[in-house]
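debug: dumping io for the single-chain case to check the tokenizer round-trip. Nothing else runs in this session.
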Amino acid sequence: MKTLPLAAFLVSCVTFGLAAELPRSSPEAQGVSSSALLAFVEAADKHIDVMNSFMLVRHGHVVAEGWWSPYSADAPHSLYSLSKSFTSTAVGLAVAEGKLSVDDEVLKFFPEDAPAEPSKNLKSMRVSDLLRMSTGHQAEPKRTPEERWTKTFLAQPVPDKPGTHFLYNTSATYMLSAIVQKATGTTVLDYLRPRLFEPLGIDHPTWEMSPQGVTTGGYGLSIRTEDIARFGQLYLQRGTWNGKPLVPAAWVEQATARQTANGSDPKSDWDQGYGYQFWRCRHGAYRGDGAFGQYCIVLPEQDAVIAITSGVKDMQAVLDLVWDKLLPAMRPESLAPDDGSRKKLERKLASLAVPPQDGSSPPANVPGKKYVFAANEQKLEAIALESQGDVVALVARIAGVDRRIVCGSHSWRKGRFAYSPLPEQPVAASGAWTGDDTFKAKLCFYETPFIVTLGLKFAGDQLLLDTQSNVGFGSTKQKQLAGKAE
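debug: decoded output
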């Protein structure tokens, strides 16, 4: 593939200082029914596990936006694999700069990590194979702290000819990030700052790093919901922002086209083809998405973008709801004002909330003891409750560090906390007694999809602790712990 013909295009991107504000509009002015939007939000609130946020952009205008408290507009959110679409964009920009080509062989960039005798298939693997998840692997290379991730990837057997079949492969996206860093001398995060994030007005993006100091690429980016919508709008506008080029239109077309087949189920949005780190969807749409329900959905035929963050086990259910409720709500022309429905929609959007912990009045004798635990995988050493009227504080010693969080009563209280395996970070807590001997606390780590529920059951000098998360890559329930009063 030839370098995309955009001379000096990246220099202009940096110097334009482009504004990023997305204008707001009533739904009807942009051809969207407020009553249909309300039906979508109500259905999502009722039937989807845990919605975190939603934004619909039509004809470049935000016509509906909402956050389920304690999630909020100003808080960043973990994108998981939606990060891959941003890494793809970095590759496209590096191609435009002439730093690399999608036809480059992968081994070219990592001679120090190559096997002593690379296989024929590994030698033929190209950047384009990484982009379209067609590396020739039958299993994804596992990444460990002990070995350079690029070396691990190149040591993985490549039994099939690259380009011949699809295998979703987060390690392949990491390789793309490492290639951009090799070619440009900077991480993908720093490379995208002046070229993408700053022009779009995406403030303070953060991205996890590998032990080798390489942006993880396939996951780890955290930005706000509106930032997701801006990114989608940029792609909808074929790489232009306020009339100025940021991403080559040719790259947008290539990245979002069907580059490889990945299934045959006409009802599945995971079987419609895969581009360069973008998924094809039904209804002529495409998207970036991430684990547990992070979506950037672009609908060219409707001139619309949908940004959603959530904590769900069934990601298809969210897309089905979009097609069932939102797609019919968008009309080609503006609609007559519907102030009554619009006000109902606005009230609903303003009142959205993740349900806090339900419960009853506190027992007459609230246990005030500290309970200690034997060594365990959760690294929980001790736990106690401090009662302050109707409010309870959860006090825990985890991995040698004392931590405390106040639980709102029938509400959420924000603070900072850590609970294995999640590191210390912003959290909202809600707690209540569900019986005379049982206290439950919900910990909503609202910059992620995770909500951890702790069940503390007291019996004299013994405490039984159950821990469960709403979503997870493996089991969502941890082994019950038994503590003894100190």
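debug: round-trip ok. The radius of gyration is 24 Å.
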